[in-house]
What we know:
By secondary structure, the chain is an all-beta fold. The chain has strands spanning 2-7, 10-12, 18-26, 30-39, 46-52, 57-59, 67-72, 77-82, 91-100, 109-112, 116-120.
Amino acid sequence: QVQLVESGGGLVQPGGSLRLSCAASGRIFSIYSMDWYRQAPGKQREFVARINSAGSTSYADSVKGRFTISRDNAKNTGYLQMNSLKPEDTAVYYCNGVVRTSISRTTGDNYWGQGTQVTVSS
Length: 122
C-alpha cells in the first residue's frame, strides 16, 4: 500500500506564506503525478495544482502567480509553496498522487492524504 502524509498547514495572516509538504511512502515504483486539492467549509473539493512526472505544472486560476507546486522525486515528496495568501484560501488541503506500485504494472493507482488545515486570518 501507499500512504500520503501532508504537513505544513497552520494559521497565517493575509499576505503571508506557507509551504505544504506531501510525503509518499510504501510500495512505490514511481509517481506519475502529484496534485493538491482543497476543500473549504460547505464547499466541494476543488483542484489547486498539479505536477506530472516530467515536471510540467498546471494551476487553478484562483492561485496562479501566488502558488508554486514542486516535487523531489528522490524523496517521493511534493510541495506547495503558497504566497500572498488570502482569507479565501482557507481550507483543508489534500494531496493526491497517482502511483505506480511495481515495475509489472503499467498504470497507477490513486491515493489521497488525510489533509492539512490552512487558515488565513488576521
